[in-house]
Amino acid sequence: MSVSLSISLAELERLRNAILETDLKRSNPKNEYELLRIEDGDISIVVYKSGKVVHNDTEASRRVIDRILERERDYDLLLGSDEVGKGEWYGPLVVVCAAITPPDILRLRKIGVKDSKLLGRTQLEKLATEIIGKGTIYRDVTLMPETYNKMYSEFQKEHKSLNDMMAWSHATAISSTLAYVSPGRTKIVIDKFDVKKTDLRLESAKVKSENVEIIQSSKGDTELPVSVASIIAKSLFEKKVDDLNKIVGVDLRSAKPKDIDPQVLPTVAKLHFANVRAVLDSAKSGADGRG
Prior knowledge:
Structural class: alpha+beta
Order of helices and strands: EHEEEEHEEHHEHHEHEHHH
Low-confidence stretches: none
Strand order of the largest sheet: 1-5-4-3-2
Strand content: 15-25%
Number of helices: 10
Oligomer: single chain
């Protein structure tokens, strides 16, 4: 039986050190995709250039893998927060915060959890179903277009930006998740977009405490808790887009705002996008001309 997972560059370096320290026997790669191959008694480990690792499920191989994997032993709980839909003119803004424990990490990595940008929709949906099915605690803030547009307008009236609205959404999802988990030493990783605004919202939501470490990282999507949140968020986003597609009778993913009836457009689109505004302005001008 073979087991596969992805490893980071730091873990790859630890694997190389483990090979040198224990004199594990290396074999020549069998194809252009292999970076490293170990064949030593009961140990069989193949590292691919993509970062994927495949090993046989023996105690000896598991010891090597366990030795190189990064651990989060200093924490009782790991939270990741990420958003989907910010860059699309259609569909909702979905922010998800997911909570996992350090023992969950290896299991999630073994089923293929990684940066959601590297996953096709079929694989993403399968992982989302498995992650949620295993009881992963998460909370989402899903702003459908009509709600999103109303909130965006209200934030603008207060001279606030989209980043303020996103910071509110992240802080709300994080505080809601924390309300459903046991207290303990907690690490929260947020895919960074605006440190100052996010920090203020987290403080307002009373997320900060001596027991909580908050990290806003530009490489947050490489952190497993953020990957879990992103996979769930993308799954929710895609399902909501499927629902909206039924309203307009086209696939919004491949459509343009001009393909949508201007009267229906506000129910499926984010109105501050320039291409959406252009369609609505054109429709208004046409109506005014006829009047």
